[in-house]
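Lecture 7 notes: from sequence to structure.

We start with a single chain of 252 residues. Read the sequence below before looking at the structure.
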Amino acid sequence: MSLVSIVRGGWNPQENDIDLMVRRAIRQVGGLDDIVSPSDLVLIKPNLVVPASPKEGSVTNPFVIKSIAEIVKELRARPVVAESSAVGIDTEKAIVSAGYDQLRNKGIDVIDLKKTKSTKVVLPKGRVIKEAVTYEIVTQADVIISVPVMKTHDQTVVTLGLKNMKGLFHDTTKRKLHMEGLFDGIADECTAIKPDLVVIDGIIGQEGLGPMYGVPIEMDLIIAGKDVVATDVVAAQVMGFEPERVRYLAKA
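Now the structure, written as tokens:
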């Protein structure tokens, strides 16, 4: 059985409130001690699809990321926040627009994957994708934490922990997914690179024409789990969707 936690905060939570919510959500699924060891490289993957403010509900709140990074540091491991934004989007602009330069000022590494060295991975269990291009630091990570925003998506109904992993792949693979079969492809990717923990930022989500142009919805929630499919299923239900309707979740 998979355990998923849901923590609700008060209206308009601030940095300290969000920290308490994130810590409680992670603690309720057993903490990080079983997946993070001293000196581990822990890759934290937000959703920074385009340059935007967290208030718009399309990008991960930096305070959620900050809390996770601090927990990782407390375990004497090394957190690295890493993202490659949508195809053709300048990731560095997205990093700055979302306020992640504040994290850098606090000594947390935030990197644009598109400026790092890429590498190929084989997906022997893939249905439509048998080979993909990712980044060396992704394959070097001891632990991967997916930190998406709770939002709808114009093609996949919702975009949560599983689909957020798409940002760990090169633009060439992202394009290939849309050509070869997006729903199977999202599930295929996680046969090669799978998150060890999912922390869903439901502080301000988005509904309607997501993942970029929807309406911001304040939910004041953090949802966490170590089983990415179970966590996404719970989040989809919280959003009002039957998981079976989310085709990539059904396939996963």
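The CA atoms of residues 243 and 249 lie 7 Å apart. Keep this in mind for problem set 3.
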